[in-house]
């Protein structure tokens, strides 16, 4: 064991090209490749130490929590890295949990990085991304700062994330937190239902084309095109939920719909503003650093109580 690294901090990411469906649930292999922006505003810091009991234990934000999901993931790491004794995992999560802000991305990336460091192993980030993918697919992208891609792959080795080399750009993301409550339909369940939509195969094909278009837009630092592609990809993803043949559903609330309408109004006024949404009611708005304050002010005019955060491009995993 190596105590050199005491904590690992990983930031969450927002998928601009979404992951919404698994072709192999056991390995967490997605049906599509995805592309994301890491955010500075939301992160998880995790430390591990020997457990004082005979099993893994978990404390989240200073509260003892059910360690089932953590223990299940640590069992996977033991099969991949070699057996190690029970661990006590302590995390501080600075992301609203289960509200569509990918809290599991930063959580499992930080946990993976911290365990690997604790064991004294020196593994490349691509390998870490493969390991973290087994706990949360989106966690694979949180090892990398700025923009990252997660390749869907065909097996465990070929499904990994890596940094997407991109120029600096003044991109900003406004998070409108419609609800901080847990989702009624969890992400895994939502994906399974969405895959029953008659439109699902077409969405997968469309997403592959959008992935290529987004990669080009990022390379060109074209924030308006990045936003337009992200909005189309996200809204098409959420449309799958409504057209599922098994228990159709939606994450949208009336407030979600109002914010989406206000974003369209802003664009008609010449403001660069595009929406993207993960599994939840919260709306993320792609814009520029310069225009973000204007958008925040406009939203507060209509929804004074709406919680808004402005995030910019964030770093990859760090250790202290």
From TrEMBL:
<dbReference type="Pfam" id="PF22700">
    <property type="entry name" value="MVD-like_N"/>
</dbReference>
<dbReference type="Pfam" id="PF18376">
    <property type="entry name" value="MDD_C"/>
</dbReference>
<dbReference type="GO" id="GO:0005829">
    <property type="term" value="C:cytosol"/>
</dbReference>
<dbReference type="InterPro" id="IPR005935">
    <property type="entry name" value="Mev_decarb"/>
</dbReference>
<dbReference type="InterPro" id="IPR036554">
    <property type="entry name" value="GHMP_kinase_C_sf"/>
</dbReference>
<feature type="domain" description="Diphosphomevalonate decarboxylase-like N-terminal">
    <location>
        <begin position="10"/>
        <end position="161"/>
    </location>
</feature>
<dbReference type="InterPro" id="IPR053859">
    <property type="entry name" value="MVD-like_N"/>
</dbReference>
<feature type="domain" description="Mvd1 C-terminal">
    <location>
        <begin position="174"/>
        <end position="305"/>
    </location>
</feature>
<keyword id="KW-0067">ATP-binding</keyword>
<dbReference type="GO" id="GO:0005524">
    <property type="term" value="F:ATP binding"/>
</dbReference>
<dbReference type="GO" id="GO:0004163">
    <property type="term" value="F:diphosphomevalonate decarboxylase activity"/>
</dbReference>
<dbReference type="InterPro" id="IPR020568">
    <property type="entry name" value="Ribosomal_Su5_D2-typ_SF"/>
</dbReference>
<keyword id="KW-0444">Lipid biosynthesis</keyword>
<dbReference type="InterPro" id="IPR014721">
    <property type="entry name" value="Ribsml_uS5_D2-typ_fold_subgr"/>
</dbReference>
<comment type="similarity">
    <text>Belongs to the diphosphomevalonate decarboxylase family.</text>
</comment>
<keyword id="KW-0547">Nucleotide-binding</keyword>
<protein>
    <recommendedName>
        <fullName>diphosphomevalonate decarboxylase</fullName>
        <ecNumber>4.1.1.33</ecNumber>
    </recommendedName>
</protein>
<dbReference type="InterPro" id="IPR041431">
    <property type="entry name" value="Mvd1_C"/>
</dbReference>
<dbReference type="GO" id="GO:0019287">
    <property type="term" value="P:isopentenyl diphosphate biosynthetic process, mevalonate pathway"/>
</dbReference>
<keyword id="KW-0456">Lyase</keyword>
<keyword id="KW-0443">Lipid metabolism</keyword>
<dbReference type="InterPro" id="IPR029765">
    <property type="entry name" value="Mev_diP_decarb"/>
</dbReference>
């Amino acid at each position: 064991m190596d105590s050199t690294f005491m904590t690992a901090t990983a930031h969450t990411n927002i998928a601009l090209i979404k992951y919404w469906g698994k072709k192999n649930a056991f390995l967490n292999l997605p049906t599509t490749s995805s592309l994301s922006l890491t955010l500075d505003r939301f992160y998880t810091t995790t430390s591990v130490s020997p457990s004082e009991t005979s099993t893994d234990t978990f404390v989240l934000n200073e509260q003892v929590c059910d360690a089932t999901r953590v223990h299940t993931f640590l069992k996977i790491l033991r099969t991949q890295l070699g057996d190690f004794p029970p661990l006590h995992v302590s995390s501080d999560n600075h992301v609203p949990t289960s509200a569509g802000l990918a809290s599991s991305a930063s959580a499992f990336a930080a946990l993976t990085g911290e365990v690997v460091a604790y064991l004294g192993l020196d593994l490349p980030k691509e390998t870490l991304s493969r390991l973290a993918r087994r706990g949360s697919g989106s966690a694979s992208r949180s090892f990398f700062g700025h923009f990252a891609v997660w390749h869907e792959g065909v097996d465990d080795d070929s499904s990994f994330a890596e940094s997407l080399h991109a120029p600096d750009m003044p991109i900003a993301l406004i998070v409108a937190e419609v609800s901080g409550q847990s989702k009624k339909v969890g992400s895994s369940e939502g994906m399974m239902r969405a895959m029953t939509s008659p439109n699902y195969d077409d969405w997968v094909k469309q997403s592959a084309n959008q992935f290529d278009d987004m990669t080009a837009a990022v390379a060109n630092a074209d924030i308006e095109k990045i936003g337009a592609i992200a909005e189309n990809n996200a809204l098409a993803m959420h449309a799958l939920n409504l057209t599922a043949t098994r228990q159709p559903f939606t994450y949208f609330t009336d407030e979600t719909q109002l914010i989406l309408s206000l974003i369209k109004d802003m664009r008609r006024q010449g403001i660069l503003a595009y929406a993207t949404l993960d599994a939840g009611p919260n709306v993320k708005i792609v814009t520029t650093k310069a225009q973000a304050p204007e958008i925040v002010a406009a939203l507060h005019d209509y929804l004074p109580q709406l919680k808004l955060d402005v995030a910019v491009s964030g770093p990859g995993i760090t250790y202290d």
